[in-house]
């Protein structure tokens, strides 16, 4: 198939590198032709343009980067959509596409318009419930009439995307079930494939541990053989509950005084250290360090278990934490809260972690009591869980099947 892939996330962003290109590279190897149009932010684009250009050139993929505009709010997005529509029309007129694959809602405005005008096949790769995410994340205040209008518009378009797409992609089975329960979609059940945020399990694998780097990191971080290390991977932004994770760690310290909390993140250390200090957690119990992608498996290998707490709000029903598959791939059991996407069902089905049902001291104490059992889970069980639910190879196969069905 000749595919036009539209992404409002930049390929030079971390998300583009981990959650756009790996799929496209896999699909390219299966014979599909790709043109990618993405919106690039200035600083990462200046830093990574040459690297990404070489990667796509080597795969025979055409990449057209557009400049992302961030202000003023709403109007900047309208302008970006206008620029994208003009670019897509020109591209399609020169060599028509079989499929327009749209990542999330903004680009789907153009994908749906192209389907209606030219009959090109339209894939709505929704990722999560975008408009509700903006509200749940307090980015759109519905008391503001402008944001209320924008929210209502995208909820209306959400139904049109799902109704008219030739195929829709949900990150979670829970999201698919929610969609199929909406009576306002006229032609139910609409075609929805579930493809989570997959992990490259060849990269996130114990075989990728650099023993020399591991030894250096243990020395640099002051880690001893009897330390119990839990780790968090990624930035701490809108959705991740730092205070609650620190509260859990404080309870863990009471039961296991030899515990340390390793944050593998590019966030500023004070973002973590100040809240930790307010909770009277000693700074020598907290380790904060960035890591390059090729170093992440070795950083994760320092830990005995991993943790992430995410706001359990409606919009997160459709979310799939990328870090979950990466942690499992490295053989790390995971401590997570319930109410986020398919995380509950994955952990329960594979016996690969601990679910925290409430953000209370009692719930944290109950979870800490289960840690001895957690550490008995065989590495093979954890890796099998990653393979079952987060395999990049399986994700590529599912996308390929969707393409070929059209």
Describe what this molecule looks like in 3D.
The chain has 18 helices and 13 strands. The termini are close together. The chain is globular. Strands 3-2-1-4-5-6-7 form a seven-stranded parallel beta sheet, with helices on both faces. Helix 6 runs antiparallel to helix 7. Strand 4 (99-103), helix 5 and strand 5 (121-127) form a beta-alpha-beta unit. The protein folds into two domains: 2-196 and 392-405, 3-Layer(aba) Sandwich (Rossmann fold), CATH 3.40.50; 206-390, Glycogen Phosphorylase B (Rossmann fold). Helix content is 49%, strand content 17%. With 406 residues, it is α/β, with parallel strands linked by helices. The model has no long low-confidence stretch (mean pLDDT 95).
Total DSSP helices: 18
Number of domains: 2
* Count of strand segments: 13
Q: Strand order, biggest sheet?
A: 3-2-1-4-5-6-7
**Tertiary shape:** globular
CATH fold descriptor of the largest domain? Rossmann fold
The termini sit apart by: 9 Å
Largest sheet: 7 strands, parallel
- Which strand-content bin applies to the residues? 15-25%
Mean pLDDT: 95
Uncertain stretches: none
Helix content: 40-55%
**What is the CATH-assigned architecture of the largest domain?**
3-Layer(aba) Sandwich
Itemize the secondary structure elements and their pairings.
Layout: E1 2-7, H1 14-19, H2 21-29, E2 33-40, H3 42-58, E3 62-67, H4 75-94, E4 99-103, H5 104-118, E5 121-127, H6 130-136, H7 145-164, E6 167-170, H8 173-180, E7 192-194, H9 211-221, E8 228-233, H10 242-255, E9 259-264, H11 269-278, E10 286-289, H12 296-300, E11 305-308, H13 322-329, E12 334-337, H14 343-350, E13 353-356, H15 361-369, H16 371-374, H17 379-390, H18 392-405
Parallel strand pairs: 1-2, 1-4, 2-3, 4-5, 5-6, 6-7, 8-9, 8-11, 9-10, 11-12, 12-13
Helix pairs in contact: 2-18, 4-5, 5-7, 6-7, 10-15, 13-17
